[in-house]
Amino acid sequence: MNVFKNPVAKKRWQRFRQSRRGYYSAWILLVLTLCSFGAELFANNRAIVVVYQGQWHFPIYGDVLSGKDFGLDYSYEVNYRELKASLSEEPNSWVLMPAIPFSPLETDLIAGDFPPHAPSVDTRHYLGTDTSGRDVAARLIYGFRTAIVFSLLLLFFNYSVGVAIGCMMGFWGGAFDLFFQRIIEIWSNIPFLYVIMIVASVITPGFWTLLFIMAFFGWTSMTWYMRTATYKEVARDYVMAARALGASGPRIVFRHILPNSVSTLVTFVPFSVASGITSLTALDYLGFGLPPPVSSWGELLKQGTENLEALWLVGSVVSAMTVILMLVAYIGEAIRDAYDPRKFSFYE
Amino acid sequence: MTGYFVRRFLLIIPTFIGITLLVFAITRVVPGGPIERMMTQIQLGGETGSLHRSQGGGTLSDEQMEELKRYYGFDKPMLSSYAIWLKKVLQFDLGHSTRYQDPVWEIIKERFPISIFYGLSTLVLTYAVCIPLGLAKGMYHGSTLDSWSSAVVFLGYALPSYVIGIALISLFAGYWDMFPLGGFVSDNYEEFSAWGKAKDIFSHAVLPLIAYLAGSFAVTTLMMKNSLMDNLSADYMRTAAAKGLSRSESVRKHALRNSLIPVATSFGSNISLLLGGSFLIETIFNIDGIGLLGYEAIIERDYPIVMGILVISSLLYLLGNILSDICVALVDPRIRFGGGRGA
User: Fold this and answer.
1) Residues of B in contact with A347 (CB under 8 A)
2) A121 in a structural domain
3) Reduced to 3 states, what is the DSSP secondary structure of residue B248?
4) Domain total in chain A
5) Residue A116 in domain
6) A302 with A334, same domain?
7) Which residue has the higher pLDDT, B143 or B339?
8) Do the Cβ atoms of A194 and B19 come within 8 Å?
9) Helix (H) or strand (E) holding A304
10) CA dihedral of residues A195, A197, A201, A202 (deg, nearest 10)
């Protein structure tokens, strides 16, 4: 593929880089996303590295280690936080814990206080805990991973269905086009959130079912766009020329029409990502999203609004969402400018 | 063009049937419907009742089950019960709520004033704020006003309105205690004087209205600004400048009208908000409008109400879309829908 040598694409890429805000936002978001895939290294109740009597262990990605392995008197899994304290005196033994030494599903109840616990550096709950004593910071990180993976997968499904059906509608036209036009008309008039709530209340979805339900109701906008784009391309001379040379239907679609129309889809990607994250969080907030105990931002928001005195719950989720969605919006703005530079002028 | 709109109106019928049939089918195959609810209720009631009656059986007999199913219309196949439901809807009978036993239409009608209050205020405020602001931002592009308001607009653009609502309620109602924690009016609303009543409604309405506004505010302002800037560089503006009009005059007389066209397209979608409200914002602020009713109905599996709200909101949505197009056709004589010759 010579997409990257294409002078138009090159120019767009240069314009994208020129808008510094969008370019840096893209990098930050990419780094955050990659970090979230290694969330176990940042928030976990297992240690990253344990060196015990000169021997190295990596408990996160290795086997489960019991207390006996470290000369303790129990055979269930080691509590690495206690291990760290007990090993601090011993020579050539040490424990490196993640920055947040709690797993997102672990309840840590502090004696003499009811959860949610306020943020404190002493207990190492930097953002406090939720109503069942789970660490908020850990749940935020894992919740971000859920949200971003969910919205990227949703984007993938929506776009592949949209591109496939939209392209066929534009290329074949006729009865196929008419039939799907009606379907899209029905689909796009469905009150999206309400129907998803009804469906989700009925079948209590898991990750994949929820993804499927959202994709089932969300594929239409891309389809409509692709249909128009294909229609425009089909009428152009180069397609006629390809036909005259005897190119088959699939060849015209895949070699000529798709490369010319798909690139513009990039401008919609940031908005789809943002809407994926916000609708998943909204569903979780209303209680129709992912089942507990999956870490999710919506569920934290729900706890926060039910316990308004625990301001750190709402505060941390809202700040996290603001940061992520602002980054996405900056990227979207930069991509749009790269595709359609607005040269502003007026007459006086 | 009349033909085009007649066709659009006729298309409402299959679309409406499509939506309702889809949801109707879903509610049918779902476990935990009203019958199961009633059974558990009777079982629980049976247990407490059995303290008094030694032979108090908790379960229902088959006969009673049949009767219940007939009462809710669950005894017939799905398509025929859908036909019966549709026929009733056409006679403006949405059935009875399985939870309250009242007619669905009465329950929904009770909530209308609240949703209309918020919908109308949002609509008026959005246009009253966004059009002048977008105008100022477009005319003085790059000025201090433009860059400062851009920051606010961008925040409202990036964040969904429910997140803004949650942030507002936890800060201003939960933490600083400046506004009430939700609801439409206070409990002792009846005791207030007329002035007190107005003040009460106002103090309850401030936070939800900001949240509602945040949703449409950014989009409308940006739309207004961008379309004004497009028009400012148009040829007819050069002509206007050439014949000696001042800048503000040429904007007022020529560019302004043309830049209102895209804003008019958003008018129709606001109509459905007018009555439908937002599930999320009404849930967050505990406002007893149609959105909250729909949310509770889903949780309680009160399907007649769920279907009733679906009927109303999808009709509004369909009508709103057509209304948008009519608005566009009214403000922009260049636009011809339907594409036919001279249509």
Assistant:
1) 232-233, 237-238, 240-242, 247, 250
2) no
3) helix
4) 2
5) no
6) yes
7) B143
8) no
9) helix A297-306
10) 20
A193 and A76 in a common domain = no
This model's pTM is above 0.90: no
CB contact under 8 A, B237 and A346: yes
Say yes or no: A155 and A191 in one domain. Answer: yes
**pLDDT over 80 (residue B187):** no
Q: Is the separation of the CB atoms in B276 and B316 below 8 Å?
A: yes
Query: Which domain CATH number covers A156?
Result: 1.10.3720.10
| pLDDT, position A51 | 81
User: Does residue A87 contact residue A40 with C-beta atoms inside 8 Å?
Assistant: no
Q: What is the pLDDT of residue A40?
A: 83
Q: What are the beta bridge partners of residue A49?
A: A96
- B276 and A191 within 8 Å at the Cβ level: the answer is yes
Contact state of B279 with A194 under an 8 Å Cβ cutoff: yes
Q: Given CB atoms, is A121 within the 8 Å cutoff of chain B?
A: no
Together in a domain, A63 and A8 = no
Which residue of chain A has the CA closest to B141?
Answer: A344
* % of chain B residues with pLDDT over 90: 0
Which B residues 295-324 touch A at CB under 8 Å? 295, 298-299, 301, 306, 309-310, 313-314, 317-318, 321
Asked if residue A144 belongs to a domain, the reply is yes
* Predicted confidence band of residue A29 (pLDDT cuts 50, 70, 90): very high
Residue A166 lies in a domain: yes
Distance CA A29, CA A18 (A): 18
Q: How far is A175 from chain B (nearest CA, A)?
A: 17
Q: Domains (ranges, CATH) in chain B?
A: 2-104 (no CATH), 105-331 (1.10.3720.10)
Whether ipTM > 0.85 holds is no
* pLDDT at B45 exceeding the cut of 60: no
List of E strands, A83-236: 94-96
Out of B22, B175, B318, the one facing A311 most closely (by C-beta) is B175
Q: In the structure, what pLDDT confidence band is assigned to residue B31 with cuts at 50, 70 and 90?
A: low
Residue environment code for B235-255, b if the CB has 16+ CB neighbours within 10 A, otherwise e = eebeebbeeebebeebbeebb
**CB-based contact (8 Å) between B20 and chain A?**
no
Has residue A156 got a pLDDT over 90?
Answer: yes
Domain that holds residue A51: 45-97
Q: Which of A202, A318, A344 minimises the CB distance to B166?
A: A318
